[in-house]
Amino acid sequence: MLGLELRLGAVAMLRAPIDAIPDLSDNQVIVSPTGPRSPQEVEDQITYPLTVNLQGLPGVKVVRSSSAFGFR
With 60 as the cut, is the pLDDT of residue 72 above it? Predict the structure, then answer.
């Protein structure tokens, strides 16, 4: 029984993906709405609801958001 567990553990270890250089960058969400909307409308209808929902995700430490006119 122990031999089987050791073999299965070795197989699992060899098949596990290893990332030599892990991605340490922050995750980003960039939303570019189309149409004539003011920054206040974007803030009220898109940015604020998105920020509130992202803050509720497990493991999220910091959420920053901004809305600006003419950003591309």
Answer: no
Q: Note the pLDDT tens digit of each residue in 48-71.
A: 999 999 888 888 888 888 777 765
**Cα three-residue angle 3-8-9, rounded to 5 degrees:** 95
Identify residue 14 by its one-letter amino acid code: L
Is pTM beyond 0.70? Reply is no
Angle, vertex CA 25, rays to CA 20 and CA 26, nearest 5: 145
> Cα Rg for the chain, rounded, in angstroms?
22
Separation between Cα atoms, residue 35 and residue 67, nearest integer Å: 15
Q: Which amino acid is at 2?
A: L
- Quote the tokens at residue 59: 């493991």
Structure tokens at 5: 């567990």
Check residue 33 and report its DSSP letter: -
